[in-house]
């Protein structure tokens, strides 16, 4: 499985590609940051993010894209830029038919370090260890992007099983509802015949 992790941001959008399967050693394929100038117009910055992500998709051909789920922060301006960059990443993937998964920061931290409250240094250290790198990727946005990809590879089998279980439950529930409806209809017909006899 090859996953492109995206740590969305307008000034620095972290990107990292990891390959592997759960339970086996993982390999870093590439890591970097898509940067945009803070003084540029918002539309031009979003276009630069889009072009950067498209380049990564062209070069690395991931099977999945894992994006950090944006959550409300104190700084509304920061969260708006993050949400916009996140939307661009999802759009780029959807245009190519690549499945997108959203993971919260605490999910990623818990998957990589064992603690949902780990700090950036701990995440960077574990990413370095898990991918057998000589040093933590810089800046932290790049390490976070790799952590997202790792999280998705490790969580995907469990998520797939959960989705299959939900789908099976819904299919059984639909069959049960159809059977109950058919039984009600038969009962109504029988009751009508009884009254007319």
Topology, element by element:
Blueprint lengths: L1 E6 L4 E8 L7 E9 L6 H19 L3 E5 L7 H20 L4 E4 L1 H9 L6 H11 L9 H57 L1
Verbal overview:
This protein has 197 residues and is an alpha/beta fold. It is 59% helix and 16% strand. It has five helices and five strands. It has helices spanning 42-60, 76-95, 105-113, 120-130, 140-196; strands at residues 2-7, 12-19, 27-35, 64-68, 100-103. Strands 3-2-1-4-5 form a five-stranded mixed beta sheet. A hairpin with a 7-residue loop joins strand 2 (12-19) and strand 3 (27-35).
The whole-number mean of residue pLDDT values reads 89
Record field, number of beta strands: 5
> What structural class is derived from the secondary structure elements?
alpha/beta
Identify the strand order in the major beta sheet.
Answer: 3-2-1-4-5
Measured distance between first and last alpha carbons:
67 Å
Q: How helix-rich are the residues, as a percent range?
A: 55-70%
Radius of gyration: 23 Å
The backbone outline, from C-alpha atoms, is elongated
Largest sheet: 5 strands, mixed
**Tally of individual helices:** 5
What is the ordering of alpha helices and beta strands?
A: EEEHEHEHHH
**What percent of residues are in strands?**
15-25%
Low-pLDDT segments, ≥5 res: none
């Amino acid at each position: 499985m090859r996953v492109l992790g995206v740590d969305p941001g307008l000034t620095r959008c972290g990107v990292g590609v990891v390959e592997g399967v759960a339970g086996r050693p993982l390999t870093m394929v590439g890591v970097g940051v898509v940067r945009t100038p803070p003084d540029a117009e918002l539309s031009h910055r979003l276009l630069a993010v889009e072009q950067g992500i498209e380049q990564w998709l062209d070069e690395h051909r991931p099977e999945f894209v894992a994006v950090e789920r944006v959550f409300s922060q104190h700084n509304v301006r920061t969260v708006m830029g993050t949400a916009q960059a996140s939307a661009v990443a999802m759009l780029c993937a959807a245009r190519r038919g690549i499945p997108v998964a959203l993971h919260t920061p605490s999910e990623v931290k818990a998957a990589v370090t064992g603690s949902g409250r780990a700090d950036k240094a701990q995440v960077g250290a574990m990413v370095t260890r898990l991918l057998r790198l000589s040093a933590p990727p810089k800046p932290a946005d790049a390490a976070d992007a790799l952590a997202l990809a790792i999280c998705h590879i490790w969580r995907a089998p469990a998520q797939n099983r959960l989705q299959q279980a939900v789908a099976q439950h819904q299919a059984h529930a639909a069959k049960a509802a159809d059977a109950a409806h058919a039984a009600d209809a038969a009962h109504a017909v029988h009751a009508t015949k009884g009254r007319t006899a």
